[in-house]
Write a structure and sequence with these properties.
It contains 1 helix and 9 strands. With 138 residues, it is mostly beta strands.
Length: 138
């Protein structure tokens, strides 16, 4: 019985003496745009959600946003949140709208890009003829 207690005591001391793993500060930002608008019509607005991984440089970070055509609001901010939302409005022409996000904590700086396709809508029309005894309504 004493031997079992001694072994248990040694195991407990070994566990307590083991070095504690601490989170390592990373030197980059991991960014994704999941759930964000992918297509817009000319002059149409959409929402882009910028997700910043919690595994990032410590402290608050400052971000700035710009687009290659159209507008984005807001254009800058400071936060420690894992995400922030932007309103992007497409310009008047079709093509690629590139959203550029710059992130920095004063030491680590990084730029990410997200492309939104600006397209003209496809309009489908049809003539419907009612030759039956049922009323046709819109």
């Amino acid at each position: 019985m004493i031997a079992i207690a001694a072994v248990a005591s040694l195991l407990l001391m070994a566990c307590l003496a083991a070095p504690v793993a601490t989170a390592q500060e990373t030197n980059s930002y991991s960014v994704n745009f999941d759930g964000s608008v992918q297509y817009l019509q000319p002059k149409e607005a959409g929402t882009v959600t910028v997700h910043v991984s919690p595994d990032r440089p410590t402290g608050n970070y400052t971000w700035n946003a710009s687009v290659s055509a159209g507008t984005v609001t807001p254009t800058k901010g400071t936060t420690d949140a894992e995400s922030f939302t932007l309103k992007v409005t497409a310009g008047s022409t079709t093509g690629d709208l590139v959203l550029t996000i710059g992130l920095t904590n004063g030491t680590v700086s990084q730029t990410e890009k997200y492309t939104i396709k600006v397209i003209n809508p496809v309009v489908i029309t049809a003539d419907v003829k009612n030759t039956g005894n049922v009323t046709l309504t819109n």
